[in-house]
């Protein structure tokens, strides 16, 4: 089994355990996120993989498709970038004028301030 969930660039992987035993992992980083990659043999029955993290953070939006033939007015993330210190995230978004959009925040304790939107 190869498992590599996405994490924010801010997240720090503290360790991983499979069925209570330490398992090797490696972190693959790119410009917008990172993946903690774990490989282990699949076996009969259930297994429990625990990945311990610190400072993970994420944003998500509920994207709805427009009716067939209608114009889309949903929010789109055009670009995102982290500061070199990974303590500031900048999002460029696009949406319909005068429309309100909500973003879900994973681990909101990581947010210190918001510019250009309301919290």
Main β sheet profile:
4 strands, antiparallel
Number of strands: 11
Percent in helix: under 10%
The topology string of helices and strands comes to EEEEEEEEEEE
- Dominant shape: globular
Q: What average pLDDT do the residues reach?
A: 91
Poorly predicted ranges = none
Distance between the termini: 40 Å
Number of helical runs? 0
User: What fraction strand?
Assistant: 35-45%
Q: Helix- and strand-based class?
A: mainly beta
- What's the gyration radius in Å? 18 Å
What's a concise summary of this model?
The chain is mostly beta strands and 119 residues long. Helix content is 0%, strand content 42%. A hairpin with a 6-residue loop joins strand 9 and strand 10.
Which structural traits does this protein have?
single chain; 119 residues; mainly beta; four-stranded antiparallel β-sheet; 11 strands; 0% helix; 42% strand
Can you give a write-up of this model?
- Helix content is 0%, strand content 42%.
- It has 119 residues and is an all-beta fold.
- The strands form 4 sheets. Strands 1, 2, 5 and 6 form a 4-stranded antiparallel sheet that branches. A 3-stranded antiparallel sheet has the order 4-3-7, with no helix packed on it.
- The model has no long low-confidence stretch (mean pLDDT 91).
